[in-house]
Design goal:
Radius of gyration: 28 Å
Distance between the termini: 49 Å
Helix content: 25-40%
Oligomer: single chain
Shape: globular
Number of strands: 38
Largest sheet: 7 strands, antiparallel
Strand content: 15-25%
Length: 1074
């Protein structure tokens, strides 16, 4: 059946900000789908609130709405644009839930919009826990014994039927949000209450625990003709009880017998047919009892899932692209395989290698939270590695994780038997290394399997790796024969690990290895285990042979180094830059070569670059690719700190780097050189000093005065940054955090309280500097720029201050010799401008700036690196006058109960949203709504402000009361408001006794919080207030400028709500204005 000609325009719903459980894999799938449908000639409309994604680039869809993804907003877009169909299966749970609400509101029927990919009944049957359970019973498949509840009382009555421990799964949520394992009645009540709150339909499934069972996933596709294919089987290393997103996973499944696999495959197809998925991809999860082979269906997702990106990258089979084609009428036998160009998509992929995915966690950002892993996902990113064997793949994934490990190793210290048993049995990020310690302590495989629940098949390989690694310690390099060294390399041992064990340099190990003729070989990911020739060069390294399946070309070529696994501080924004770099190179006729290890991203899609290497970003792996490809240049500026950390080693190896010279990066990072440059340019920085030990730091702080901002040099995302208020705090910091960046000193700066922070992104060709945007932070100084709400253009700086900031930026870019992008952070206090730091590389704000001013700066920077000038490219300084764009952060605090949400200089947000409008208040309201903190139009407002804000707060408070809001305030603010005749109720601060403001927040009596902190005590109170406000999704405003913005937003909402407008129209307006 060919494409449907009765459809003209299709609305795609994106997934919104990057959050735990719903990350950039949906940018990847959405981008793929948009390209596939545009290829077919459809007019594509997109709604997504995430400015950092490739899919919201204005040249991708025909109409790009960067708006909050709510049923009300999507309804307005439907009314305005009148699409023929809606595709909700590519934007995660957010898109599905929104589409369900639109159906229930009658919007789709009213405007004649058809739901593609999965009908309403299909989604309901798969997502409503009770309906799914009944459907499984109908086709003879087992589900875990379970009960449904809609209230806590109902749940308490039904848990007795299921028994404890049990698993709680909220309906219509993603990443296990709100769920968990309850071992006792107290935990049960807590998890059920949270799950009911987070489920949009207030429904939870109380399920019998299958702890210790093995867990598997199948990625499945089905079309209108009932062609069904399994794209990929995935096995969790961890047993049931750990969310699949937090488990190490392996593809294809390794421990299934052929009979078990066929049983699972048949069950998956039966589920697809019964649920009614007939044009797209689904993810089906199973549990298998290792004792007797019993098979239980856990759940199925009637959409492209989080694992779909992994399965696509593992096999080379583009699930989202094919799902989009199936949704508009094609069948699998009509779609051509993109890699072989000769086989149809109804051929199931066959792979002759092993893929390992490892999750990356960020518990160091949330030290008070429990790091035990359960059914609620907590990882912030992942890496994927491909090898010919499990061992090779496993060790490549470990070093690709970028957590300071060069292979499978342990703590290298003695543990008591009790400690080892405890660490092996507790599911946590470090359990993998506890397995190493157990094997090095001569634990038997059976005992480790009993304690951990990990299958003995995997443990046999891990035991061999652990013992081999331990035995390396007594070796010298020359002890390794050619046979032994080749075997070690085939099992994934890195040159860095061998150098560590033999007390030699990595270069010496490499030279010795190559002298024995042991070199890296490269094989193809081809979807068909080499049965057909692959036309797409998508490669992975292996030591099982030394030849090449695809030789390098002699074309002019450039290698782009990606950012590796997502983490807080280094995420999708950098992948956005890498994708633009690749597209720009291809446009210029230069071969683009991408190196990255992140399966979630657009950059690792095989059609983004001319050649893709799916490899860890380590010196050994990248240098091997460089020596093979002999590039004309390597771009290290776009992938965040990961590629920058490799720059010096690549330079020493004679690899040419494109863009800003490495010396300029060092000059910006080295505090002494940086101060010299500022003095030369007559620019001002806060008083500062450099400390290498505790007493030195105290002397500097005494000289410049408290509070001070302390941080290690050469870090990203504000890692280990802190505001310190006294000597005791400073000594604690120095004793704990001085190791945060080995080999680099700690920087001590005077912290400018009550200042406004400003970010600037610019691009330079070495002769001319174009300012992309000046971003004014709405939060107070001291909050990391990634966690701050900010606005383009500034609303309160004044022309003189803004021009001084622009001139300082230009002067520094030219002085450093920047070729490409640069980011500068300023603080404005009164009429004085201070420079906080300079980063001569792509920053995380580049996508936001690019969308806000309609200039693709990453692409422009790549063209400049290739030798073009800004004049040649015709780039002029943008001046957006008719639109304001507000960026707001999305936080993961709800995933980390117990973690304090007091924001500071260390970044903690996982993603961002953008609100754009011609009115600042409305742009702010849209951004708040998109980030999950909807501004209220009625209710109770809590206010507590510092003394310097007490005069200006009266204006805000009076406006709120005039709109009908009730006010609650702490003593000092209450007195100030009372003096102005503003009605207000008094409440205690946190440290003044009960009942206090946090009690009020917890009982959901507050709709909005205005809280401007100053100093150590109030910052502590502020942390508690923020923590509870984020758990309750209550907007919390920490500056008077934010309060004024919110006031404007509330007024705008009360006057008729937001209008919707695509980016393309905003930019057309700006062109008319210009």
């Amino acid at each position: 059946m060919p494409r449907r000609n009765d459809l003209e325009s299709i609305l795609i719903i994106g997934s919104g900000p990057i959050i735990i459980g719903q990350a950039c894999e949906f940018d990847y799938s959405g981008t793929q789908a948009i390209k596939a449908l545009k290829e077919e000639g459809y007019r594509i409309l997109l709604i997504n609130s995430n400015p950092a994604s490739i899919m919201t680039d204005p040249e991708l869809a025909d109409r790009t709405f960067i708006e909050p993804i709510t049923p009300e907003i999507v309804a307005k877009i439907i009314e305005k644009e009148r699409p023929d169909a809606l595709l909700p299966t590519l934007g995660g749970q957010t898109a599905l839930n929104t589409a369900m609400s639109l159906q229930e509101m009658g919007v789709l029927e009213k405007f004649g919009v058809e739901m593609l990919g999965a009908r309403y009944e299909v989604i309901r049957k798969a997502e409503a826990r009770d309906e799914f359970r009944v459907a499984m019973a109908k086709i003879g498949l087992k589900s875990a014994p379970s009960e449904i509840a809609h209230t806590l009382a109902e749940a308490q009555g039904r848990v007795e039927k299921v028994g404890l421990p049990c698993v709680i799964r909220p309906a219509f949520t993603m990443g296990g949000s709100g769920g968990g394992i309850a071992w006792n009645h107290e935990e049960f009540d807590t998890i059920v209450s949270r799950g009911l709150r987070l489920s949009p339909v207030s429904e939870v499934l109380i399920e019998k625990s299958l702890l210790g069972w093995k867990e598997f996933e199948l990625e499945v596709m089905r079309d209108h003709k009932d062609n069904c294919v399994v794209v990929c089987s995935i096995e969790n290393l961890d047993p049931m009880g750990v969310h699949t997103g937090d488990s190490i996973t392996v593809a294809p499944a390794q421990t299934l017998t052929d009979k078990e696999y066929q049983q699972m495959r048949n069950a998956a197809f039966a589920i697809m047919r019964e649920i009614g998925v007939e044009c797209g991809g689904s993810n089906v999860q199973f549990a298998l009892n290792p004792e007797n082979g019993d098979l239980i269906v856990i759940e199925m997702n009637p959409r492209v899932s989080r694992s779909s990106a992994l399965a696509s990258k593992a096999t080379g089979f583009p699930i989202a692209k094919f799902a989009a084609k199936l949704a508009v009428g094609y069948t699998l036998d009509e779609i051509q395989n993109d890699i072989t160009k000769v086989t149809p998509a109804c051929f199931e992929p066959a792979i002759d290698y092993v893929v390992t995915k490892m999750p990356r966690f960020a518990f160091e950002k949330f030290p008070q939270s429990d790091s035990t892993l359960g059914t609620q996902m907590k990882s912030v990113g992942e890496t994927m590695a491909i090898g010919r064997t499990f061992e090779e793949s496993f060790q490549k994934a470990l070093r690709g994780l970028e957590v300071g490990r060069v292979g499978f190793s342990g703590k290298k210290r003695e543990f008591s038997p009790e400690e080892i048993r405890q660490k092996v049995s507790r599911p946590a990020p470090g359990r993998l290394f506890a397995l190493y310690d157990a094997f090095c302590a001569d634990y038997e495989i059976e005992e480790v399997a009993r304690l951990s629940g990990v299958d003995p098949w995997f443990l046999a390989f891990l035991q061999r790796l652990a013992v081999e690694d331990r035995d390396l310690e007594s070796s010298t390099l020359e002890d390794f024969s050619e046979e032994k060294l080749r075997r070690l390399k085939q099992r994934g041992f890195s040159d860095a690990r061998l150098a560590q064990a033999t007390s030699r340099s990595i270069a010496e190990v490499r030279a010795y290895r190559e002298s024995l003729g042991i070199r890296t070989g490269y094989r193809l990911v081809d979807t068909c285990a080499a049965e057909f020739e692959a036309k797409t060069p998508y490669l992975y390294s292996t030591f099982d042979f030394s030849s090449d399946e695809v030789p390098p070309t002699s074309n002019k070529k450039v290698i782009i180094l990606g950012g590796g696994p997502n983490r807080i501080g280094q995420g999708i924004e950098f992948d956005y830059c890498c994708v633009h770099a690749s597209l720009a190179l291809r446009e210029m006729g230069i071969e683009s070569i991408m190196v990255n290890s992140n399966p979630e991203t657009v950059s690792t899609d095989f059609d983004i670059s001319d050649r893709l290497y799916f490899e860890p970003l380590t010196h050994e792996d990248v240098l091997a690719i460089c020596e093979r490809e002999k590039p004309d240049g390597v771009i290290v500026q776009f992938g965040g700190q990961t590629p920058l950390n490799l720059a010096e080693g690549l330079l020493k190896a004679g690899i040419p780097l494109w863009g800003t010279p490495f010396e300029a990066i060092d000059r910006a990072e080295d505090r002494g050189k940086f101060s010299e440059m500022l003095n030369k340019l007559n620019l001002r920085a806060p008083e500062n000093g450099i400390a290498t030990e505790e007493d030195g730091a105290v002397k500097i702080a005494d000289r410049i005065g408290y509070p001070v901002l302390v941080r290690p040099s050469y870090v990203l995302g504000g890692r280990a940054m802190e505001i310190v208020y006294d000597e005791k705090d400073l000594r604690r910091y120095m004793s704990e955090a001085v190791q945060a960046s080995p080999g680099h000193p700690v920087l001590v700066d005077r912290f400018l309280e009550d200042a406004i922070e400003v970010d600037v992104d610019c691009v330079s060709d070495g002769q001319q500097v174009i300012i992309g945007a000046v971003m004014e932070h709405i939060e107070e100084a001291g909050i990391h720029s990634g966690d701050s709400t900010c606005v383009i253009p500034p609303t309160s700086l004044g022309e003189t201050i803004e021009e001084e900031i622009r001139e300082a930026t230009r002067a520094m870019a030219l002085e450093l010799g920047v070729i490409g992008l640069m980011n500068v952070q300023f603080a404005v206090r009164g009429e004085r401008v201070y420079i906080l730091e300079v980063n001569p590389r792509a920053s995380r704000t580049v996508p936001y700036v690019s969308k806000a001013v309609d200039v693709p700066f990453a692409r422009v920077a790549t063209q400049i690196m290739a030798g073009h000038t800004l004049v040649e490219l015709g780039i002029q300084e943008p001046n957006p006058e008719s639109t304001l764009a507000v960026k707001a952060p999305a936080f993961p605090f709800a995933k980390f109960p117990g973690a304090r949400a007091d924001l500071g200089p260390e970044m903690r947000s996982t993603g961002e949203v953008m609100g754009i409008d011609s009115n600042f208040g409305m742009a702010f309201a849209k951004a708040s709504d998109a980030a999950g903190r909807t501004l209220p139009t009625e209710g109770k407002v809590f206010i507590t402000v510092k003394d310097s804000d007490k005069r200006s707060v009266a204006l805000v408070a009076r406006s709120l009361t005039e709109m009908g809001f009730e006010l609650v305030a702490t003593d000092g603010t209450w007195r100030a408001l009372s003096r102005h005749g503003i009605p207000c109720e008094r409440i205690n601060k946190v440290h003044e006794g009960r009942p206090h403001v946090v009690d009020l927040i917890k009982s959901r009596d507050i709709s909005l919080i205005i809280n401007t902190p100053l100093g150590k005590v109030t910052r502590h109170d502020d942390g508690m207030i923020r923590s509870e406000s984020y758990q309750a999704n209550i907007p919390c405003l920490t500056t008077m400028s934010a309060a004024m913005a919110a006031l404007e937003g509330i007024q705008a909402l009360r006057q008729g709500g937001p209008d919707v407008c695509p980016l393309q129209d905003y930019f057309a307006k700006d062109m008319v204005t210009a």
